[in-house]
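#struct-help
A.M.: can someone run this one for me? Single chain, 123 residues.
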Amino acid sequence: MAHLVHIKSHQDSRGQLSVVQDEIPFEIKRSYFIQQVPSSDIVRGGHRHHHSTQALICIAGSCEIYNHDGEKEERFILDHPSKCLILEPKDWHTMQKFTKDAILLVYASTKYDVNDYIDEPYS
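D.P.: on it. C-alpha cells below:
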C-alpha cells in the first residue's frame, strides 16, 4: 500500500540540507525526474508494476498522485521535499496537477524494463 515517509532536513544560516538515506526501503537501481510539465491538466503515469517499488519526492513545486492498490483509492499531495511517497508494485498510479515549477524526483528499485509495466487499471 502506498504510504508517505518523512525526509529529514537540517536548517542553518547556509540554507537547508535534506538527506535521503534510510527512508527508502529498497536499494535504488534507477532515478529520474519529471519537470517542465506544460499544463496542470497533463496526466502522467497510469500504470503499476510487476516488480518495481518507487519513491516519489516533489523537490520543487507540487503535484498530486492518485493511487489504487486494487482495494483502496487514495490521493497524495506532494508539496514539500520532506514528503516521500513509497509506491509498491501493486500500486496503479497517475501523477497530475503539476505546478509550473514542479520537479518530481523518482527513485526505483529496478532498472527500466518495458515488461515490468502493467497499463490496465484495476476495475
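A.M.: thanks! The chain has one domain: 3-118.
D.P.: also worth noting: The longest strand covers residues 54-60.
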